[in-house]
Amino acid sequence: MFSVMNCIKRTTPAVEDGNIDILVIQQSRSEYLLNMCKIPNVTVYSYFNNLDITDSMPDNLVIIDDLDNIFSKSLDYIICIGKTNSVHISNILRQRFSTSVILVDDTTDETYCNRPFGTNVVNRIRANYDKKVSIYPNICRDSITIPNIIDNITVTAKDEQFCLFDKLEKPALNRYLGALKGINCLSFSKENLLRSRVFIDTVVGVTEHLIKAIQNNCFVICPYSEEAQDLIGEGGLTYKDFEELAKHIQAVKDEVTFNITDPSKYCILENEFVRSWEKVLRG
After folding, report:
1. Considering just the CA atoms, what is the radius of gyration of the chain in Å?
2. What is the largest CA-CA distance in the chain?
3. 174 and 127, same structural domain?
4. Are strands 77-81 and 61-64 parallel, antiparallel or unpaired?
């Protein structure tokens, strides 16, 4: 995979106004990646082609399907988002080609636990990095925090109760459908979030789709994690097993009015995002 990656080798600091080339490795943070394309004088190479681009692709974004592709120029940084499979790739590249790695941390250590909704602790990979950025303020208090850019969403009247994040493997989804037996849930989509009063998350941590639900004025029910509990406060409920989830569903199934979470702590304006990342990339 890495036989022709000897062109990724630059360790000198980026010049103040020159173009910066970065390779971004992520599996579930496609919106954050697209936010990074808003940084001026930066070319973003994306590995893991999981982008949901409904509009035209940003001019400074290059999709890399295979790391054996030969780049025409060396890279300034590798940006690794998350601490699972992305870390495995960035660790190898950093060791072989001496490229500076910026870890973008998106979960607390507590989230990596062995329970039905978490990432098994044996699959956790130690990250080797040169700089660290946190997406959320309570993940790592000794690193800079740069959240997602807040969306401008026009919230309309809601005519449905539940929307379920159903982008799961079939066995896991069937367990949820069993726990939600008799409850009509819309499949996850941006359009269905606008229509729904309650969003049921199935992934541990503060995910992009959880933030999207909050921005759409949804009351959220999500798996327990430290950062999720901190985010939702009284604007949602957390669960640690399917029995607790079923109890929460019964408690809110006929409610119409909810306390709503303010997402501002976990999102920032575009100019703040750009300014913060320029400071990280250009020192």
Report:
1. 20
2. 60
3. no
4. unpaired
pTM: 0.75
Q: What is the Cβ-side half-sphere exposure of residue 192, based on CA atoms within 13 angstroms?
A: 16
- Tens of pLDDT, residue by residue over 217-261, are 899 999 988 878 888 888 899 998 899 999 999 888 888 778 777
Same domain, 16 and 122: yes
Report the alpha-carbon distance of residue 95 to residue 101 in Å, rounded: 10
How far apart CA 6 and CA 12 sit, in angstroms, is 16
The domain in which residue 254 lies consists of 160-265
* Two structure tokens written together for 171: 């066995």
> Which two three-digit tokens encode residue 170?
């079939």
Query: How many domains does the chain fold into?
Result: 2
Question: How far from the centroid of its chain's Cα atoms is residue 74's Cα?
Answer: 27
The Cα 94–Cα 48 span in angstroms is 18
- Please choose, from the candidates 142, 196, 208, 136, the residue with its C-alpha nearest in 3D space to the C-alpha of residue 164: 196
Answer whether residue 109 shows pLDDT above 60: no
Structural domain includes residue 80: yes
CATH code of the domain covering residue 228: 3.40.50
* 10 and 135 both lie in a single domain: yes
As a residue count, the chain comes to: 283
Question: Which amino acid, one-letter code, is at 243?
Answer: E
| Tokens (6 digits) for 144 | 């800079």
Residues 142 and 41 in one domain: yes
Region 153-159 average pLDDT: 74
* Three-state DSSP string of 170-215: HHHHHHHHHHCCCCCEEECCHHHHHHEEEEECCCCCCCHHHHHHHH
SS3 of residue 80 by DSSP: strand
